[in-house]
Every structure is written in C-alpha cells, then in structure tokens.
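Possible race condition, two jobs.
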Amino acid sequence: MDCHSIPPEIFATAFEIGVSLWGIRFVPPVCLVCKRWNAIVIGTSSLWGIISVENIQPSALQSQITRAKSSPLVVKIPPYHITRKPHERAIERLIRLSPNWISADVGTDSLTRCHWGDLCSSLGILNLRQGFTRPESSAFFNDEDRSAWGAPLKLHSFSAHGLEKSWILDFLSPSIKYFHFRGGVTSTQGSHSTSDTLLYLSRIPQATTIELENLRHCHRDFKECTTVVLYHLRTLKLSSVLCIPNLLSGVSTPHLKTLIVAADINDWGRRIADDTLPMALFFSQWSQPSFIPYRLHTLELVDCLLTTDVPFLIRWLSRLPNLIRLILIDDAIGQAATPSTAGTGQVSLYEALASPTAAAPVSTGWLCPSLMQLHLDTDLAVIDLIGIARARGGIAQPVGNGPSPARLRRLYSPLCPGGNREEISMLISLMDLVECSCFGCVMSIRE
C-alpha cells in the first residue's frame, strides 16, 4: 500500500502513541520525514496535549503547553516532580488547565491543587499515586463539590497506587469499568483488610476488568459479609495478594472470562508464612451453582496451591466446560500426583485430563472439554503428557465411546528434565505444537 493513500487520521493516531511512549521529543524527527507528515503534526493539536513533566526541559515544557491550546490534555506529573523548582511554573499552568484533563497520572500532592468540580465532567482516566506529603482526601473532596457534582460519571478507569481508604472510596462509582488497586511498597502501605477490598469492589458493579496487586490482607481481620456480585466482570487478576481464598469466596462473577492468580513468593520461591490459607476454600465456593463462572476461557494459577488443594481444583475444573487456556505454574501439581498421595481422591491432574470420565459426577464426560492450550510448569514426566496428548491431541483415536474433547493444540511444559529424546519425539508426533519451557532450551522443540 502506498503510504500516501493512508488517511492522515491514521498517522495522527500513530504519532499520538509515539508521544505517549517517548514524550514530545518523538515529534521533531517525525516532522523531518516528509512534508505530509510535518503538516499532519502541525495540524494535530492533540499531539501537544500529551504532556509529561518527565525528561523534558522547562522551556520545552512551557512551549508544549502553549501549543496545546485548548486541546484535551493527557497529563503525567510524577509525585517527585511537584517539588522541583524548574518545573514549578509549568505545573502551575497545567493545574489551571485541569478542566481540560481527560487523563491524568499524578500524585495526591498535585491533585489537591485542583478542584474536583473542575475535573469530574471531563476526566476519564486517573492513575493516582500517594504524594510525598501524604495529604488528606478532604483537601480535594469537599462538601460543596460532592453536593454539586455527585458521582464521578465521567471517570471510567481508576488506578490507585499506595493510597489510603479515604482516597479510594470517593473515586469509586458504577461508572468505573477498569479498576487497578496496588498496595504500597512497604508492609504498612500494603496492609489492607479483606473487608475493605470487598467494599471497594461493591462500589464498582459495572467493572469489566479488575487488577489487585501487592495487598497484605490478614485472615484475622476477615469478617463475613454479603457476597459482592460483579455481573459485568470479564477479567480478574490478583498478583501478590494475601488471603486470596477469603477474598475470592466473597465475590461472585458469573460472566468472568479470564482469571489470573499469582501468590506472593519470598526469595526462596515459597509462599510467605502469613499466606497458608488453602485454595480449596475458594474452589469449593466457586463450585456452587451461583458462583460457577461457566464462561471462563482462561485460567492461570501461579504458586498459589497446596498439595491438598489439587483434588478440589480438579473438581472445580469439571464445572468449566468452556475453558480453552489452562496455565498452571505450581510445584503442588506434580507433588500431588506422586504415589504417596494415593487414597485422597483424584489427585493426579495428568490422569484427570487424560480420562474421558474425569468430570463425573458433575457430568459423564471430559475435564475441560474445550481445552486447546495447556501450560504446565511443575515436576512431571513426559510420559504423563503423552497420555494427555494421546487422549486429546486429535491425532490419535479418541478414547472411549462418548463425544471427543476439543483438540489440544498447544502444550508448553518443561520437557527436558522429565523425559528422554524418544519420549519427547513421541509427544511431538501427537500434537500440533509442543514447546519446552526449560531454561536454556529453545522455545520450539519441533524439528
């Protein structure tokens, strides 16, 4: 395609992405490419409205603010810049232009210099961090603003980093579609009660994506409360969150499609001492009809299981007919499959995935019948994977007389430590794509 046939709006959008990633210094080289690109840059005032106080000279920053004119502003003012003298005048100008902000990545120090009444009718995306002086939220939210404007209906994306409860609650409303809550870097800043986190979730019933990170919940502060139902939630990601079973047991997400859970691991690769609650509590709760996410298509569990959790995991998987991608990175999967755990129920996930009746008594068919991608990173033998591939790879004959499961097309696992060359070659012959996750091994082992 001739680049001259591409509409200028496409170039303008690409240039906006470049300025978002590399700052306004991205623009001068673009202007030198050709006259057309130079004209597009000059005619796209929104390029100058993407303003970051980082890595820019004060004079260039002042010039950019002037050229932005009355364009909608995407503003980034890191907390540590608010006290820097060279940028003081430019930051003051940005504060006066706060009614034009449509996206802001700022600290609470900067935000308290604005008025919520000026922001709530235009601000759609807010990435808020704790400021150096730790101002109170009352310095930003006052009774006059609340009575005049009510809920922040424009704000649809809110990220809170190291904030206290008072700062978080006032920004949460049914208008929020994306919520990212990250605890502070210190143990005190990261400490939050499970009940408070559930309270935050109850304030955003229309959310489609929620990410929770670095939250030091304590199981002793958990209080039974009304289940939070999130009908619109499609993606839920928990990373380094303590007491995950308590949290998830208090939430119902009937239309969830992606669930990612990664536990908090210490320097020795073990779960920290305060996080020993079994995930069986969560698996049992989410096996109840009103909690089962029947539409779940991606499940990722990383270092969050105990060996005793595996039978409950298998029983929960039997209730997920639409699961397509299963990612399990946990030593407990391999440990549970050892002979020493026999007699405690179905504990071998390898056998369950290869069996045409593993979903009994829920159904008479396969575990996760829609499964197409499997990532297992645990202590395993390639011979176990061969059994799964023969049953679900689609190349060998189907096992049993019932309906066959979906064809398992991709397998990603540490193969070299658990098998010889002949076994690996056999596995490759049974599937479309087999990849080894061993360190030092090439990504694709297919010859």
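Job #2 (started ~2 s after job #1):
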Amino acid sequence: MLTLRRGLAASRAFRSFSTKPHLTPPANLSEGEKLIYDKLIDKFSPTDLAVQDISGGCGDFYAIKIASEAFKGLSTLNQHRLVTRVLKQEIEGIHGLQVRRRCSLP
C-alpha cells in the first residue's frame, strides 16, 4: 500500500510540471460552446477550461471558467478584459457572459 501511495504522489508531481497542458474539449459541446472553447485554448493555453451555455440552449448566455498563466500578475479587471477581447465577435451576438478566471496553479 505504501508503494502505491508513493507512486500516486510521484505521478501527481510529474503532472504538475507539464510545460504545455493539453486539454481535450468535451464531446457534448454545442457549436457556440466549441467556438468559444477553441478561441480560448488558442489564445491562453489554459490549464483548466470549461464553457457552458447557461441560457437553456439558445446561445444567449455563456459561463466560462478558465485558468491560465496569461493572467499572472494582472488585476481581475485586466484578466476579464483579456478574455472579452478574444471573444469580441461572439459577445456582440449574445446577451451575457459570466467569466471566472484564475492563474494556473503550479
């Protein structure tokens, strides 16, 4: 049992030193969610990303959770501005956008 625990701890440590995270989009993303997901992946290389249409499926309101090193050292307002700049075209056609962002954890 002790060996297994050490192995798990070592594998967790190894994963945390990954230089470029590879996120695979969930298979059940809508067209709008996929478009937003792809743009954010390309721009921020996030370590964690979730995009969800919370408007009931009509594509008028999206919730985004993103973690990226690109946000390190930036104020909350500037982090939010970075995300909204990337999604400028998409924002023009929707009612609302909820963004939760954080710096990537080491």
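Residues 66 and 101 are 5 Å apart (CA to CA).
Logs attached separately.
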